[in-house]
């Protein structure tokens, strides 16, 4: 009888000790997925910025669509608090994201990205839980006539 009690206690103790490791693995998995999605945004934005030309008024602008996945909170992934893409200067942006209960992570993007309007320098803010959201990137001119990648959802 004592063996059974000890076996149950040992099983419960191991289960309790494994919970932090499972949470950490879920967070790392989410961060890895977001890094991959942001790498796709970076590659697509840089491709638009470096390989396409801004079209004249009345002509459809070059555009690409990238999927950004926001996992649901589960044993294998954690929810995402936010994803932001902020234009830093003429030729670059900074993507910032945070998974639940973790610090911010950053990724430089080698193209200027703004939200919705090329004439306003607005930050792209993304979020969600358990969904994949399309992010459309379009090459347009800003108010100084410089090419800029415009993100819209």
TrEMBL record:
This protein's source sits in the domain of life called Archaea
The DUF7311 domain, residue ranges: 1-151
Identify this protein by name: DUF7311 domain-containing protein
């Amino acid at each position: 009888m004592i063996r059974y009690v000890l076996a149950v206690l040992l099983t419960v103790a191991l289960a309790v000790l494994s919970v932090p490791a499972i949470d950490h693995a879920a967070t790392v998995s989410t961060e890895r997925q977001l890094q991959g999605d942001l790498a796709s945004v970076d590659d697509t934005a840089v491709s638009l910025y470096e390989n396409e030309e801004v079209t004249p008024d009345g002509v459809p602008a070059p555009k690409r669509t990238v999927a950004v996945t926001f996992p649901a909170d589960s044993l294998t992934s954690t929810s995402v608090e936010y994803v932001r893409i902020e234009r830093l200067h003429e030729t670059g942006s900074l993507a910032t994201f945070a998974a639940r209960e973790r610090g911010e992570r950053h990724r430089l993007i080698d193209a200027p990205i703004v939200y919705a309007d090329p004439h306003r320098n607005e930050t792209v803010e993304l979020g969600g839980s358990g969904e994949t959201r399309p992010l459309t990137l379009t090459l347009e001119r800003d108010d100084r006539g410089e090419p800029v990648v415009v993100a819209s959802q």
